């Protein structure tokens, strides 16, 4: 009898502990629900990088009720490394066109900021990728996020367990932050789009090259924590020539002929994923971020510009991510 | 004013009141990497150098390591290797350096642990590497990478043989050297530390290659080292980025390759004084005076 009673007490205690643990896991891992009621995404068709890109972007931006007057605009391209003939980086013509467009819209200042994840010599990436010349000619300031002044910031979500990150002042003080990813598949995260692009804000001088701690803490989880903390206000995704297969560096160029604009990074990434012929709900960070950062469902995304047409052949993926195909 | 003196003057001008340097000209946040590199090139005994040494002594963590930047947590970072080198000419700093060496000996990539070694050997084989050969990570809790391993090798080679750490240092140097050789790119040279991913070879980077070759200055005859030198020589002549070219000059000089024409190219870059990155300015000063710089890095031809 005594044994039975002890077993009963232990059992009840165990059940109670189990309830507490499962209760904890049911608590949201984010602090604020920032989802807009509806999001807006525009798809623009452009088959090649040419001088038409500026005109096209100007027209595309009129589809959004943007007010960047007197704001400090920060453009965050995906500038990782350089290899001739590879579609690794956001094309410099698109970045320069975006800078000119935001200047015309009355921005107080426009700068380009990036912290390459593989290359310590940021200047080398700028030189080899063609950015250096264009930025100089257009008098656009570049800021190396790997070496910017840093602040220790409490993360506004807790998927990775990191709690705090040192982040660049430029990004924390940006009044209008534009994520400008290259549309690519990625061997560690499935895809790399506007939200994964924010890994470039994590400073190498504190976290190394590559920013290995983000991999150890979970790439999907780190994306969620960073994007909860550094809000992206607008997205201009470069899918004119995208990358498929073993991205982000060694994949194959894929001519997609699209630029995706969006006022919500979750909606932008979900749309890009659909354009790649993949299923956004199967990507954890998109699935989770649709609970608090933005919208991924087509019914709450206002699709403007060109229609969203899935490709006949979905993007190639490394085997670990083949389940993303629809 | 000769170029190197001009750059040293600029470095002095950028020194913060606390004796440190910011990573960029526009930043007043004390950063250890820039401070160590700038201290290394400053004249021994000068006000600039003494200020920098005093800053580094104040910034040391209780466990003997140095943080990446002032105000960071006290776990330590890869820059400990740079700090012990920057303090190598300061006699009062000897106890601090010894604590730094001790910390470096115990600081290793996650793959040094049996569990992660097993994981990389069995289930996680997407990146090709031998987890038995580990070096140093950038920060605790991550795996080994080429640059922190190379600087740690350079630092530990300068440890005084009377420090009582001879055997553990020998073992770490041996394993770190093997790690560098294991992580090279198939075509020669190094990038951050992933030679082959998903079966596809990755390209080397000139600056990572240069730093690895400095650490392997004593392994001149290894075929991989010779192959990497050929890559670096071929690449350096086309480089338009001052930092990569500066490190390439140092590495080639460490392997007794001619560098005069590369130094001339380096000097011909426009507006070097206005380069925002303080670490690059210091690297330029190192490269423009190779012989003395290699000696500071513990490399004697």
Description of the structure:
- The complex is a heterodimer of chains A (326) and B (301).
- The model of chain A has no long low-confidence stretch (mean pLDDT 92).
- Chain A has a single domain, classed as Rossmann fold, CATH 3.40.50.
- Chain A is 32% helix and 22% strand.
- With 326 residues, chain A is α/β, with parallel strands linked by helices.
- Chain A is built from eleven helices and twelve strands.
- By secondary structure, chain B is an all-alpha fold.
- Chain B has a single domain, classed as Glycosyltransferase (Alpha/alpha barrel), CATH 1.50.10.20.
- Chain B is built from 14 helices and two strands.
- In chain B, helix 7 packs antiparallel against helix 8 (166-182).
- The model of chain B has no long low-confidence stretch (mean pLDDT 93).
- Chains A and B meet through helix 4, helix 7 and helix 8 of A and helix 9 and helix 11 of B.
């Amino acid at each position: 009898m005594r044994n039975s009673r002890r077993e009963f007490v232990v059992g009840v205690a165990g059940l109670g502990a189990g309830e507490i643990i499962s209760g904890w896991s049911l608590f949201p891992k984010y602090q604020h629900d920032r989802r807009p009621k509806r999001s807006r995404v525009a798809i623009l068709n452009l088959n090649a990088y040419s001088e038409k890109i500026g005109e096209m972007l100007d027209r595309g931006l009129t589809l959004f009720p943007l007010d960047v007057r007197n704001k400090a605009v920060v453009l965050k391209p995906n500038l990782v490394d350089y290899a001739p003939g590879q579609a690794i980086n956001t094309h410099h013509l698109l970045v320069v066109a975006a800078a000119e467009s935001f200047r015309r819209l009355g921005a107080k200042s426009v700068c380009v900021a990036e912290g390459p994840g593989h290359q310590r010599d940021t200047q080398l990436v700028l030189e080899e990728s063609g950015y250096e010349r264009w930025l100089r000619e257009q008098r656009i300031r570049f800021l190396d996020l790997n070496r910017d002044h840093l602040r220790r910031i409490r993360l506004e979500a807790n998927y990775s367990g990191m709690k705090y990150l040192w982040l660049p002042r430029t990004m924390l003080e940006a009044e209008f932050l534009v994520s400008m990813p290259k549309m690519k598949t990625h061997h560690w995260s499935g895809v790399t789009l506007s939200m994964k692009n924010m890994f470039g804000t994590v400073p190498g001088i504190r976290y190394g090259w590559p920013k290995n701690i983000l991999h150890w803490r979970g790439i999907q989880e780190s994306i969620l924590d960073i994007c909860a903390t550094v809000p992206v206000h607008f997205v201009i995704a470069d899918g004119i020539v995208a990358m498929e297969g073993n991205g982000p560096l060694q994949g194959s160029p894929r001519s997609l002929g699209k630029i995706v604009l969006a006022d919500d990074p979750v909606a932008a990434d979900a749309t890009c994923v659909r354009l790649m012929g993949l299923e956004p709900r199967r990507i954890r960070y998109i699935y989770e971020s649709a609970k608090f950062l933005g919208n991924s469902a087509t019914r709450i995304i206002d699709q403007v510009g060109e229609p969203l047409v899935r490709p006949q052949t979905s993007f190639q993926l490394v085997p670990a991510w083949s389940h993303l195909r629809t | 004013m000769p170029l190197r003196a001009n750059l040293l003057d600029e470095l002095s001008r950028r020194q913060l009141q606390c004796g440190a340097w910011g990573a960029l000209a526009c930043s007043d946040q004390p950063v250890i990497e820039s401070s160590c590199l700038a201290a290394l090139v400053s004249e021994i005994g000068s006000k600039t150098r003494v200020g920098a040494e005093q800053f580094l002594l104040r910034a040391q963590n209780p466990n003997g390591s140095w943080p990446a930047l002032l105000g960071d947590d006290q776990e330590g970072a890869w820059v400990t290797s740079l700090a012990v080198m920057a303090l190598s000419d300061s006699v009062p700093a000897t106890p601090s350096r010894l604590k730094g060496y001790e910390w470096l000996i115990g600081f290793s990539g996650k793959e040094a642990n049996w569990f992660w070694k097993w994981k990389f050997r069995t289930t996680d084989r997407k990146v090709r590497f031998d987890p038995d050969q580990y070096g140093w990570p950038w920060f605790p809790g991550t795996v080994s990478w080429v640059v922190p391993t190379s600087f740690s090798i350079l630092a530990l080679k300068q440890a005084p043989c009377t420090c009582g750490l001879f055997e553990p240092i020998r073992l770490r140097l041996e394993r770190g050297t093997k790690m560098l050789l294991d992580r090279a790119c198939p075509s020669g040279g190094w990038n951050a530390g992933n030679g082959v991913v998903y079966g596809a070879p990755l390209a080397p980077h000139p600056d990572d290659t240069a730093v690895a070759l400095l650490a392997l200055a004593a392994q001149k005859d290894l075929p991989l080292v010779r192959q990497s030198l050929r890559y670096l020589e071929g690449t350096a002549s086309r480089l338009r980025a001052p930092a990569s070219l500066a490190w390439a000059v140092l590495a080639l000089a460490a392997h007794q390759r001619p560098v005069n024409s590369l130094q001339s190219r380096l000097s011909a870059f426009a507006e070097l004084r206005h380069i925002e990155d303080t670490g690059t300015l210091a690297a330029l000063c190192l490269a423009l005076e190779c012989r003395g710089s290699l000696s500071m890095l513990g490399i004697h031809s």
